[in-house]
Amino acid sequence: MHMRLSRRELVQGALSGLIGATPLPAMAQRAMGGGRLVLSRRPAFAVPLPTPFSSSLELDLAAHRQLLRFYRQAGADAVLAVGSTGEMLSITWPEALRLVRSASAVFGPSRTWASLSVGRSVESCRRGAADLHQAGAGLPVVIPGLLAGAGSTEAEAERLLLEVGRGIPGPLGLYESINPFHRTLPAPLLAALAAQGSFQLLKTTQGAPQRMAALVAAVPRGFSILEANTADLFAVLQAGAAGVLDFCAACFPELLAHLCRSWADPKRRSSLQPLCRWIGDTDALLLGSLAFPRGVKAVLAARGLAIQPFSRQAVADLTRDQNAQVQDLVRQFRSLSRDLGITPLL
């Protein structure tokens, strides 16, 4: 696939987040120094951006821009830069800001979200959020497991998160990242954070429909909860999840776009259960047997994008069997796309 953006398109994207002939869904409206994050469709999907590296493990910004254009054309509502899929703990903060600027040039600030991978204290969260705003991210995303580590109690985590929220103009997001410490947010804690006002989005890994229903009931209308654990995706969406932010979105965004469009018609929802199961199975494969995050990059390379499965993390190269799994996954995607009437972008 070969995509080019003109200088004018890049400028327009940086200013408004709307680029070229394929418009982005109007997902978020944000005013610097405060504002609301608004999802204009439910469910929506956001892409956890992989970070491409060269063979010398330097940032490959050309491949990064190609990925961004691919996700824009696929109809992604937003992108999350510098997350777990982006290997946030292996990149420097100046590198993270370069990646954010690259994302914002294509998606615009309102649709560029970025993790506070330096957010190990209240003060570093505040400084980092200012850096991200300046780099073009409309939604800095706090990682509770980084701010309040394994030794912190739930009460201490709540105190720290509320202090961060008081010191940064909203909107802010919350990200239940697995690394470096997996801290999930129970409904009462999420309710307290949502009531504070700055926090307006949660990317959760909790997965079970009952937990999703409890989280949705705990927050005010307009607070968005996106699911990353898709093991029971259909039921989780029925329970009120505002959308999806998962590995499958990074590899096969066309399927997530189809899911989000089709969900709007209640008569079509039951037919989406096989697709939801395939997404859940694929996410489990990408996190498990395909050596995350190399597996995500290997799938994208197999689809024809200029990204290689290089990683700074201590993850072994894919074996012959794993590469065969990657090829099989791409074949499954193409077959499923034909069945659903989807034209793959690659």
How does this model look, in words?
The chain has one domain (7-263): Alpha-Beta Barrel (TIM Barrel), CATH 3.20.20. The chain contains 14 helices and eight strands. It has helices at 7-16, 61-74, 93-107, 122-135, 144-147, 154-167, 187-196, 209-218, 233-238, 247-251, 253-263, 273-287, 294-302, 320-340, and strands at 44-48, 78-81, 112-115, 139-142, 172-175, 199-204, 224-227, 243-245. An eight-stranded parallel barrel has the order 1-2-3-4-5-6-7-8, surrounded by five helices. Helix 3 (93-107) links the parallel strand 2 (78-81) and strand 3. Helix 1 crosses helix 3.
The average pLDDT score comes to: 90
Helix amount: 40-55%
**Major beta sheet, strand line-up:** 1-2-3-4-5-6-7-8
CATH homologous superfamily title: Aldolase class I
**Helical/strand content category:** alpha/beta
CATH topology: TIM Barrel
Beta-strand portion reads 5-15%
- Count of discrete domains: 1
Q: Do you know the CATH architecture?
A: Alpha-Beta Barrel
